[in-house]
Amino acid sequence: MDFRKIEENFFKVLMIFSTLIIFASLFWILIIVAIKGIPAMNLAMITQAPKGGFYLGKEGGILNAIIGSLLVASGSTLLALILSLPIVLYINVYLTKKSRLAMFTRFSLDVLWGIPSIVYGAFGFSIMLFFGLRASLLGGIITVALLIIPIMSRAMDEVMQMVPIELISASYSLGANRLETALKVVARQALPGVLTAVLIAFGRGIGDAASVIFTAGYTDSISFSLFRPVATLPLAIFYQLGTPFPEVQARAHASSLILTIIIMLISIASRYLTKKFKSFVVK
Predict the structure, then answer these.
(1) What DSSP designation does 59 have?
(2) Would you give the distance in Å from CA 22 to the centre of its chain?
(3) Are the C-beta atoms of 190 and 119 separated by less than 8 Å?
(4) Distance between alpha carbon 170 and the CA centroid of its chain, in Å?
């Protein structure tokens, strides 16, 4: 009996089975969301804010939550990028791979990544209470930014660690300093991966509910002010499912479908931009 052949076949079957589970789970989620969401979908859902009696089954839509989610996710992603990119460039260009500071930074980011989002929400809420602030778009942006910084940073870090050391050495040999090497060599070489990391973080930010439930608040109006409460899609789904009215619960499934479509579009955009910007990479 050839045990090596048996072992190889066993793990081959295991890998195929695991892959099928992933595809089946994705397919099942999409089917359920579509079946329950499409019947409740209409033009008013994406073009109108909630009107009087919306949570009693009357007319209105979730435009306020769509705009609010885009504002929170965009603002937090921009803030996270501003903070994450210098961190990652510093530990990959200014520090050695075996530097204790670099290792500690990566360890800290891993720990922060594993903290539940509700903890970030509670932390943000505590800070807001300390400074006498109320739930607002700004509070949601800052809290979600704290949530996605470790996600974005570690994703970019993994990409930058794959930049060939020969390119960095060649940059130094041509007289470039560390800042020029970081921006014109490392960042450019890792650009496709950086864009992917940004979009992954954006997707996480737009779909998270726990971190904004205490910090962003909720409102039925459309608000662009940084200092006023703002609605988000995850919280809209939560509140709609919490009502005893079947019509409103059906709208929650429609809201879930809208959020799912947004996440899918982000994934498609991530793959497209990754391929498009590969021309910047030195092969």
Answers:
(1) S
(2) 20
(3) no
(4) 35
